[in-house]
Amino acid sequence: MSNFSVTFRESGSVQILELHGDLDAHTAPDFEAAIRKCIDDNHHRIIVDGAHLEYISSAGLGVFMAFVEEVREHEGDIKISSLQPRVFNVFDLLGFPVLFDIFDTEADAVSKFAASGDAA
Question: What is the DSSP letter of 12?
Fold first, then answer.
């Protein structure tokens, strides 16, 4: 039984995906479906809030990589916020801070979209 869930919220034109629990090979399809829904609904400015993300595996990280190019082709981006230290260490170890903007707070991530003219 999975303890993973995704909650959708909005802040202006930014779609926020709040992740809860463990993102691994068994739950990655749920995260993939959430990002696909954003794209299908023309939400290309996405923040992944990891405040309640307890664990991430390579399968979960792969979901980020699978969609970032498509989102950026639509003049959007995927930004990551509020990661717990042990989860951030996984992102950091694999070089994600070079590929993705990672912020301490969701508000900082929203502000980055606003500063670039992307959050109306």
Answer: T
Nearest Cα neighbor of 16 from 25, 5, 8, 26 is: 8
Question: Which is it for the CA torsion 65, 71, 76, 79, positive or negative?
Answer: negative
Name the DSSP letter for residue 42: T
Q: Does 25 reside within a domain?
A: yes
Please check whether residue 119 lies inside any domain of the structure.
Answer: no
| Domain count within the chain | 1
* Sequence-ordered list of residues with C-beta below 8 angstroms from that of 36, at least 6 positions apart, any chain: 67
Site of tokens 């903007």: 101
Query: pLDDT digit string (tens) for 26-80?
Result: 999 999 999 999 999 999 999 999 999 999 999 999 999 999 999 999 999 999 9
Whether residue 32 is contained in a domain is answered as: yes
**Domain span including residue 87:** 5-112
- Rounded to whole angstroms, the Cα distance separating 25 from 110 reads 29
pTM of the model: 0.93
- Residue 83 sits in a domain of what CATH number? 3.30.750.24
